[in-house]
UniProtKB/TrEMBL annotation:
UniProt keywords, alphabetically: Hydrolase, Membrane, Metal-binding, Transmembrane, Transmembrane helix, Zinc
CDD domains xref list: M14_ASTE_ASPA-like (cd06251)
Protein name as it appears in the record: Succinylglutamate desuccinylase
Transmembrane segments annotated in the record for this chain: 83-106
Pfam families referenced in this protein's UniProt entry, alphabetically: AstE_AspA_cat
Superkingdom of this protein's organism: Bacteria
Annotated InterPro entries: AstE_AspA_cat, N-alpha-Ac-DABA-like, N-alpha-Ac-DABA_deacetylase
Lineage: Bacteria, Pseudomonadati, Bacteroidota, Flavobacteriia, Flavobacteriales
SUPFAM superfamilies assigned to the protein according to its UniProt record, in alphabetical order: Zn-dependent exopeptidases
Length: 321
């Protein structure tokens, strides 16, 4: 996989050339605040001594998904990117404006619904354009780190494009607790990369505006497994293996049939049986108590942590093999 497509002899980003055995921090100017303060995106490039695959590790495409940012940042601090072969391009925080405003969006727009972008479009569109133009032209594949949104906590899971055999193999190497194929979303980063023959796997773990230690560590371990498989890092680096990756083939969101106070009675990631009570919804005066039951055997791959729900709100994401 990727043996004939190595791109790291010379990596060029924004006019900066990084050769074999070189590392560099590149700051890409994006825009200015109304005060005139320049906003830049830091891009770390770690190019090994030998030819090998080039991988993009990207966090913070959605600004409120701090777990993804912390995951990539922690690997920088721990010097996990001591690369001997191939190249790693690291973007700890892409959506700086969303991060500053504690928002998924960038000036009201979703960057991950703005690809391929435009050089003269909105800020989100320009961000998408330069991401494709400057970074992805250099890479063989990418890991895009995300979390659940709107108080929904995703149990550590890796997603791949069903039509992409290389993406599936990368997802298996990542070895997250759950693995499943996910349809391409129009105008998303993964969709645009697929059009350009670049496999992208998406790691989901935790929820927005929360740090989740298990999700962070699972993401780090999965990334290191891939780097070690391609002999990009020293073989002596110890990476724990998950006992099993559960391949999910069917998924269903359980939604609230009534409004009220939601109380989950099952842990995220748990195995469940058909008919099992997963939680309940009560009205604020204690007059009603509506049980939420599992529609089939399976696993909880995501749960809503917000206690106040309206009819139709997503409560549990259930997967089955």
């Amino acid at each position: 996989m990727f043996k004939q497509e190595f791109k790291n002899e010379i990596v060029e980003i924004r006019g900066n050339k990084i050769g074999l055995g070189e590392s560099k921090l590149i700051k890409i100017p994006i825009d200015r605040l109304p005060t005139g303060t320049l906003i830049e995106i830091p891009v770390y490039v770690f190019n090994g001594d030998k030819l090998g695959p080039t991988i993009l590790l990207q966090g913070g495409l959605h600004g409120d998904e701090v777990n993804s940012i912390e995951l990539v940042r922690r690997m920088l601090i721990d010097k996990s990117y001591k690369i001997h072969r191939g190249c790693v391009i690291v973007v700890p925080l892409l959506n700086i404006f969303g991060f500053l405003s504690l928002s998924r969006y960038m000036h009201g727009k979703d960057v991950n619904r703005s690809f391929p972008g435009s050089k003269s479009g909105s800020l989100a569109s320009r961000m998408a354009y330069y991401l494709m133009k400057e970074l992805t032209k250099n890479i063989n594949f990418a890991i895009d780190f995300h979390t659940g949104g709107a108080q929904r906590n995703n149990f550590p899971q890796i997603r791949y494009t069903p039509e992409d055999e290389r993406g599936y193999k990368l997802a298996k190497l990542f070895n997250a607790p759950f693995l499943f194929g996910s349809k391409l979303i129009p105008k998303s980063f993964r969709n645009q990369c697929y059009k350009n023959n670049i496999p992208v796997i998406v790691y989901e773990g935790g929820e927005s505006l929360r740090l989740d230690e298990n999700a962070i560590q699972q993401g780090i371990n999965g990334t290191l497994r891939i780097l070690k498989h391609f002999e990009m890092i020293n073989h002596s680096v110890e990476v724990p293996e998950n006992l099993i990756t559960i391949a999910i083939h069917k998924r269903k969101w359980i939604r609230a049939k009534v409004a009220g106070l939601f109380n989950a009675k099952i842990e995220n990631g748990a195995t469940i049986k058909k008919g099992q009570v997963l939680g309940n919804i009560m009205d604020t005066y204690g007059k009603t108590n509506f049980d939420i039951k599992a529609p089939f055997d399976g696993y909880i791959i995501s749960k809503n942590n917000f206690p106040i729900v309206n009819m139709g709100d997503a409560l549990f994401h259930i997967g089955t093999t």
